[in-house]
Amino acid sequence: MKFWFVFGFIVSFVLLCGCSKAESRIIPELSKFEVVEPPLDFHLSSVCPSGLKLEKGFCVIDYRYVQSLEKNGGLGQTLAQVKLDPKVIDLGRYLFFDPILSGDKQLSCAHCHHPAYSLSDGRKQSIGRDGVGYGPTRKNGVILKRSAPSLWNVVYMKHLFWEGRASNLEDQAEGPLYSPDEMASSPEVIESRLNENSYYQKMFQQAYGKKRLKISASLVIDALSTFERSLVSFSSRFDKWSTGDKEALNTEELLGYNIFRSFVARCAECHPPPMFTNNVFATIGVLDSKERDFGRETITGQDLLRGAFRVPSLRNIAKTAPYMHAGNLNTLEDVVRFYNEGGGRGNGAPSDLRIHWHVRKMGLSEKEISSLISFLNTLTDETSMPKFPKSVPSGLPVALEIESYHNRSSIK
Fold first, then answer.
1. What is the pTM of this model?
2. What does the pLDDT look like over 57-82, one tens digit per residue?
3. Most exposed: 6, 41, 42, 393, by fewest CB within 10 Å?
4. Strand 388-389 relative to strand 281-282: parallel, antiparallel, unpaired?
């Protein structure tokens, strides 16, 4: 009996290891995202990611919950529809997770925009070139000036980076790629490496439909930007409640929503649905971690915008701590209390800041603070989280150490 048990175990193990790469194997993780084994030869997928649907060969954003959002306390604007090629999305996904794009082959886009941290990195200030690891435990390397914004719904953002120095995703992608403090790469380095990689040669041909295609840095930027445009989040419990599912939110969460849009809290003035951002810059008086950060003023030269930063979307806000451009507010409770005390006016902000007139002491009770935080948690929707490839075409290590990942207590 013991012999047959051992024999059966060995046979099962051999069969499991002999599975073809062509069949995508999901490796279960503790977090919300999935780690998958790429298909044979990294063949690109023609399937649209979750949150998008296929129409006439292109992926378009599924707005099943947004129509009522626009009528229920929103701006009433029509959200743009984009057409994305599913193969280009998939190509951009591999490039996003592959360190081959960085000068030293150590840093990928995913190191600072990691699925485990809802496409941010969980740090007060991100660490660029020469850093080791990813997420809050990343160490050494160049400490960057600000925190890493999450990438959810960046397709709708009119300005990128905290101070808005880029106006589209293509310009934004070039920033980290070519910055000497971050990925420290160049168009020449990227083109040389990818054109020498047989996997990427085939993948770019699949995505862009041209034989003997020479891979250019501009095509790399296009693929990365296309992938980032697919990162949408519109299926939260609040979205479903707005569509008519009145059991999606409980009494406390509904109280929090009423506080959110009240004339006392005025949260919805800068964070209106459906995007939960008004796409502008605001000075609220958050203190800087170290050196003074003048924000939008460095771009426009206007002292009116001194200390102003892009108003972030609140979608998935419960998953992207710490908060603000300097990452100096650790929890949502810290954020709500900061505003409740009058923002910068009540927290010692420099006197030369022209703090937004909406930022005033609110006087919320403990119950109201708790309810407002409960409502913010209803904006969570990570169903369109991109699948994390266990390996990438370059063969370089990805930002996922399975052993240390399982032992971390920071992932809930």
1. 0.87
2. 999 998 887 754 445 444 445 677 89
3. 6
4. unpaired
